[in-house]
Amino acid sequence: MTNRDALRRLLQPASIAVVGGDLAAAVIRQCDKIGYKGMIWPVNPKRVAMEGRRCYTSLADLPGVPDATFMGVPREATIELVGQLAKMGAGGVVCYASGFAEIGEVGRAYQAELQAVMGELALVGPNCYGLLNYLDGVALWPDEQGGKRVEQGVAIISQSGNISLNVTMQQRSVPLAYLIATGNQAGLTVPEYMEALLADKRVTAIGIHLEGLADVAAFSRAAWLALQMKVPIVVLKSGSSALGGWMTMSHTSSLAGSDGLYGSLLARLGVVRVDSVPQFLETLKFLAVVGVLPDKRIASISCSGGEAAMVADMAERLGLTMPALLPHQAEALAAVLGERVALGNPLDYHTYIWGDVPAQTACFGAMLLGEQAITLKVLDLPRPDICDPTDWANAGEAFAGAVVAARSSGAGARGAVVATMQENLPEPLRESLLAQGVAPMLGLGECLEAIRGAAMVYERQAMVGEIRPMMPPIQKAGWVITLDEAESKTLLAQYHIPVPAGAVCKRETAVETALSLGFPVVVKVLSRDIVHKSDVGGVQMSMGEEAAVADAIQKMAHLSDQFLIESMAAKPLAEMIIGLTRDPQFGLALVIGAGGILVELFQDSRTLLFPVLRHEVVEALDSLKIAPLLNGYRGQAQANKAALVETILNLARLGEDCVDRVVEVDINPLFVYAEGVLAVDGVVRLVEEG
Questions:
Q1: pLDDT tens across 92-113, in order?
Q2: Distances in Å between the alpha carbon of 251 and those of 117, 244, 397, 645, 680?
Q3: Would you kindly state where each structural domain of the chain is located, as residue ranges?
Q4: Any idea what DSSP says for residue 207?
Q5: Rounded distance between C-alpha atoms, residue 219 and residue 474, angstroms
Q6: Which of 2, 179, 337, 422 would be a feasible disulfide site paired with 132, CB 3.0-4.6 Å?
Q7: pLDDT in tens, 212-239
Q8: In this structure, are residues 57 and 46 in contact, taking their beta carbons and an 8 Å threshold?
Q9: Superfamily covering domain 501-567
């Protein structure tokens, strides 16, 4: 764990050493460009001066111990000099050099050398661009960057150097406070950056471009801390890690998947997940300017019926609602717009008051006083090089003025101006809107997605007392055994998971066993070596007489000398799958989904991490495509969802009690009835004790 004081010194240094040639000179230029006010000490034995500053021949010659150092020298020299910095008691260092773990085995050996000498240094990289602090004017960055100073804003952590560079060039008016390119994370890791940024009260939201995590549990703890501190997090997740080859025997493992596990973790912790850089930036901007939203209700204002319809259609697809106008709103709007405008939400106010700023302000002010959490003004400005955009800009300013007035009156109004095309909301208007606390949003889809994310974060923040970070993965070493179905069901029954009445028997006593249970019955071959019994003809259902049982046993005799005979279950309302699976990074996870023979075709499932929380189980069930079947589709009986939830939680309790031994549990199908549930088939894999 990196020393926190060292990390603070690195992020907000009073002195910076830059080591190297052209790269070091570039860092000095960027520091000057961004307005850094501290001491800069170039280190280069072959140069007398660099960018107007005296060069020192070595680290030992420096007039003090640097808080931050940029290391722009080759791999071998980087290792040696990092060791010197550690002995000096320096704060932190950015290691630009490549040729470490990213190139394979040889590089991993060099990276291990680097880690061995870095001591308590806060080390960024290697193989990275570095970091930018636009709050304090710090640029440990050897390339062009397009940001500018801010007083508060969003911090971005990226595992891609080029994406980091591109983000600095954004022209979306995102108030960028920090940007950190992590590189190989030989020293500092994403969770450590998160905790350091959370300590800076000027950071209003954190964005993370994530390819993968070495310590998922540490990330979980940092994200949980952010949730408690009410600092929203947005993640742009790319890539996925393959599950271990030994996790291939059941449907449960294939349904979970690495990406599903990441999704489950982010959803639990109120982290907004996005799929593109534009969505990433627009969501961060919205959260920085507007903040989280108490619900998903929106209102929209435009002077186009087509735009109004687009907003309504897209909002419905995203689960956003548009409340009807309140009587006092309709009355105020009618007084401004007259009887030729049809009043509603979304509002197409036509062009009768176009260019009339007082009338527009009154119209927008009336719309702001509804029940919505956020009001949008759809506005695309014409090209300023060949058109006059004055009236459009005035409409945007009128909306901002109405938002400010409503806010000052105690109405708590929130507003955003959204252009349907990025190029149609120019920077001067964007900056003016920002100054008035109105979000200038680029892209209707991006805006509405950001609204959905902001409402989700609010919901998770409100229930933070019920949320827990994930359990760290632990597993005993030893042989993995697969219990046969009878053994598996005995264990499940111990945790109050209902299973059919049944008995184990030999070939000679099969008919007698069936008679004792009562027809109809199911006959199954019983063997630890046969997991998928149907694939080998090891299951016969609806046996209604003695001769049928005897015939089934005869056909299966070559597979095993033991059999499981069970009472035939009645036809269910729905077939589900519930199970436990283990991932090397995430540990145990619980899978809930549509089951039966089409389980992998439909891929209708949700994955929950441990500890499994009751509200997550309920949310997961309600989000499945088969949810209508559970709720009484087309007049059918409703499933006993209370019994289903308790059964799932009982399976989670099994996982918690055997957290270091369970490899997989696969219950498929789980029959769901109006009266309860029944685990018709099940397999358990455990690490053998002893």
A1: 999 999 999 999 999 999 999 9
A2: 46, 15, 56, 20, 15
A3: 4-241, 287-466, 501-567, 574-687
A4: E
A5: 17
A6: 179
A7: 888 999 999 999 999 999 999 999 987 6
A8: no
A9: ATP-grasp fold, A domain (3.30.1490.20)
